[in-house]
Each structure stands twice: as C-alpha cells, then as structure tokens.
Amino acid sequence: MRIDIITVQPGLLESPFSHSILKRAQAKGLLEIQVHNLRDYSTFKHNQVDDYQFGGGAGMVMMMEPVINAIELLQAKTTYDEVIYLTPDGATLNQSMANQLSLKGNLLLLCGHYKGIDERIREHFITMEISIGDYVLSGGELAAAVLVDAIGRLIPGVLNDETSALFDSFQDHLLAPPVYTRPEEFRGWKVPEVLLSGDHRKIEDWRHTQALERTQQRRPDLLK
Ligand code: 6GU
C-alpha cells in the first residue's frame, strides 16, 4: 500500500512513521508513505495556499488551486482507492473502518487546516471524510498520523504472531483483558493463578470473561 499525505505542516509528519511497527512495514516494502508540502503546489506569490472566506468571518480557507494541483499531479502517478480529507466533521474513525482501509490499494490523505478547505474540493475530489474523535485539533496532521498507524499495522504481513492484531481491543467489539509479566510476585502483588496453570483452555476462558467484564464496566456501549 502507498499512502500520500498532502499538508501545510510537513514537519509534523516527519517522525511518526519512522518507529516500531510502521517503520518495519516500510522496511518490508508493505507500506510506502510520502508527505507532500502543499506550498510546493501553489503557483501564487509567496506560495500562498489560503485566503479569506467569502461572506466574511474570521479564519482562512484552503484555496482550490494548490490543493487540486497537488491531488491531480499525484493522481497522474498513482491510482488511489480513496481520497480522504481529515476533518472534525468527518465520520468518526473506528476499528472497522481501519480494517476496511487496510485492505485497500493506495490512499491519498489531505490534512485540513485553518477553517478548512473550499467546499468545492470536497464535492469534486474527496471520496471519504474522517475525524478521529469529538475534539478539535489545530490541523489534520496528527489525525492523519493516527489514521496511518491504525491502518498500517493491519496491512496483511505487517504484524507477526507476537504482535498479532487478532487480540486487540475492539477487534471483536471487546476491550482487551489484563496482562502480566515477570515477576510472579512483586511487593506481595500476585499474578492471577490461572495464568500460571499451563491450562490453555482455562486461560482463554478467563481472558474472555475478563474482557467481557472490562467492556461491561468501561464501555457498555460496545456490547449493544
Ligand atoms: Cl481529522 N482534524 C482536526 N482539525 N481536528 C480533529 C480531527 C481532525 N479529528 C478530531 N479532531
């Protein structure tokens, strides 16, 4: 999968993909990520990319020309399954969306800034609009990083047995059960006996019960 990201703040996306699982996904050739500075696609003076909004009011709007120029130049080189606009008024990201997107070919992400982008870009170029939750960020960059992380780790072949996504929280609409590692006892705090029993059937039952209880207590909405 190839993911291209168009942004006015490329610096914000310099390092999030250079670590851990996403780094390995790229090293394995399963994922390629390219960040593009929107200003490089402006043909205006001072590489202008935003302007005052018609009708008045505070806040700038990202102009059509640089954004469309960037989208079309990238589309000439790569075929994208989705052109995704990161915006607080998009559909809220969840695990099922991440699963579906991880199976796509290539994605083009556009990070919103200021008051957002000219509505006509949304009408004519954007195929999906995604938010990462009900709070406002200064721009779509950190949301794009979250989206790429959530998708990247699910791309077939990226995770191994040890990091398998099968038992992630949300994977079957349940939160993950508690986990423990050495030592067996610390300051008198013991690891649940069942986990030391070696009885894998019993351990799986215990984990499932814990996951259910935890979900019931913390996120009953997931069980409905
Ligand atoms: Cl995608 N962008 C911004 N600016 N704020 C957000 C968001 C996106 N998702 C949640 N808050």
Quick take:
It is built from 6 helices and 9 strands. It has 224 residues and is an alpha/beta fold.
Task: Describe the 3D structure.
- The model has no long low-confidence stretch (mean pLDDT 96).
- The protein folds into 2 domains: 2-153, 3-Layer(aba) Sandwich (Alpha/beta knot); 169-222, Trp Operon Repressor, Chain A, CATH 1.10.1270.
- It has 224 residues and is an alpha/beta fold.
- Strands 2-1-6-5-7 form a 5-stranded parallel beta sheet. The protein has a two-stranded antiparallel sheet with strand order 3-4. A two-stranded antiparallel ribbon has the order 8-9.
- Helix 3 crosses helix 5.
- It is built from 6 helices and 9 strands, in the order E-H-E-E-E-H-E-H-E-H-E-H-E-E-H.
- The protein starts with a strand and ends in a 6-residue tail after the last helix.
- 6-chloroguanine is lined by residues 86-88, 112, 131-133, 135-137, 139-140, 143.
- Residues 86-88, 112, 131-133, 135-137, 139-140, 143 line the site of 6-chloroguanine.
Keyword list:
single chain, 224 residues, alpha/beta, Alpha/beta knot, Trp Operon Repressor, Chain A, 2 domains, five-stranded parallel sheet, 19% strand, binds 6-chloroguanine
Q: What does the secondary structure layout of this molecule look like, with pairings?
A:
Layout lengths: L1 E6 L12 H8 L4 E6 L12 E3 L7 E3 L1 H14 L4 E11 L2 H8 L4 E5 L7 H6 L3 E4 L9 H12 L32 E2 L2 E2 L9 H19 L6
Parallel strand pairs: 1-2, 1-6, 5-6, 5-7
Antiparallel strand pairs: 3-4, 8-9
Helix pairs in contact: 3-5
